[in-house]
């Protein structure tokens, strides 16, 4: 609409005037992806945040993404346009429960998915994202590790290594709900399409996948593949990013139910308001930040 395109331009001008960079996750609503300087997966968002020379980082996504930026950039102002956007999976582990479990397991190293709070990262040895989980696992010397909070991501990574991986019973309510029946029906409807799945899907769904990727990994895979049709086993916001990157290819959602409520909470107006009023600032308490930074930086250092 005209109102949106005016707001889009006003946001671009304000971001420039305030030396702000707008980062958006690949699941954000289309108009948020379109107004951002950079879109990406969780790993790319944290690398961008760490490297930017902007004064202000506007982080469009869910809380753990803004917290990761704040962990890496203590001298910058990190703003969350809608501070109410959380990640239900991140809430499935607390620092207290994690410390207790690590002790029970004799102190083995803990790999924590970035979909977690700063306080949980602070009691972890290293972080990972869906893009680097196998690499992170293989850099650890210990042949036994605890992975938290996503049991599906942990099972996926465990199958690719000889290490013993202890699971945490967390999951993404949306990815975890994608069923084999739904995927099979989608494959039957689109017999020429390749099926790409996110590692947060259940093991039986991952077995049906032609490729298992992070969100940006899916964008790259679609570009490199000779196929021109794909069924997408992740949050439907990615379809906008995929069609933008590869307008000549066709993308079908594996399920139109795969919609992350919290990712859809960001509006253009929120971005304008937070930049104008410097509201929605995310700050991580310093003693937690230092420890969490150690776990995040170890992950970023792995090439
Ligand atoms: P990516 O890091 O693959 O973008 O995934 C983030 C996420 O929240 C998946 O549900
Ligand atoms: Fe969290 Fe799932 Fe939403 Fe990703 S899609 S942010 S894991 S609830």
UniProtKB/TrEMBL annotation:
It comes from the Bacteria. Keywords: 4Fe-4S, Iron, Iron-sulfur, Metal-binding, Pyridine nucleotide biosynthesis, Transferase. The keyword Iron-sulfur applies. GO terms for biological process: 'de novo' NAD+ biosynthetic process from L-aspartate. Pfam families: NadA. Its cofactor is [4Fe-4S] cluster. Pathway: Cofactor biosynthesis; NAD(+) biosynthesis; quinolinate from iminoaspartate: step 1/1. Gene3D superfamilies: NadA-like. InterPro entries: NadA, NadA_sf. Its EC number is 2.5.1.72. One of its GO terms (molecular function) is metal ion binding. This is Quinolinate synthase.
């Amino acid at each position: 609409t005209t109102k949106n395109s005016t707001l889009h331009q006003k946001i671009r001008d304000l971001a420039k005037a305030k030396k702000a960079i707008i980062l958006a996750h690949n699941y954000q609503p289309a108009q948020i992806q379109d107004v951002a300087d950079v879109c990406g997966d969780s790993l790319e968002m944290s690398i961008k945040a760490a490297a930017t020379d902007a004064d202000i980082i506007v982080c469009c996504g869910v809380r753990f993404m803004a917290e990761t930026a704040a962990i890496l950039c203590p001298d910058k102002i990190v703003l969350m346009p809608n501070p109410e956007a959380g990640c239900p999976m991140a809430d499935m582990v607390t620092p207290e429960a994690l410390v207790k479990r690590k002790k029970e397991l004799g102190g083995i190293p803990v790999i924590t998915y970035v979909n977690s709070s700063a306080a949980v990262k602070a009691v972890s040895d290293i972080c990972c994202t869906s893009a680097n989980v196998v690499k992170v696992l293989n850099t650890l010397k210990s042949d036994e590790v605890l992975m938290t909070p996503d049991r599906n991501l942990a099972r996926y990574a465990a199958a690719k290594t000889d290490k013993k991986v202890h699971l945490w019973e967390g999951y993404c309510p949306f990815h975890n709900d994608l069923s084999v029946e739904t995927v099979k029906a989608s494959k039957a409807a689109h017999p020429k399409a390749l099926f790409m799945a996110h590692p947060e899907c259940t093991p039986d769904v991952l077995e049906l996948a032609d490729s298992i990727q992070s969100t940006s990994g899916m964008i790259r895979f679609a570009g490199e593949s000779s196929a021109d049709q794909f069924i997408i086993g992740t949050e439907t916001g990615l379809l906008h990013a995929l069609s933008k990157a590869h307008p000549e290819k066709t993308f079908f959602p594996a399920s139109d139910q795969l919609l992350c409520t919290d990712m859809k909470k960001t509006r253009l107006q929120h971005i304008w308001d937070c930049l104008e009023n410097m509201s929605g600032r995310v700050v991580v308490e310093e003693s937690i930040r230092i420890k969490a930074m150690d776990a995040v930086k170890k992950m970023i250092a792995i090439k």
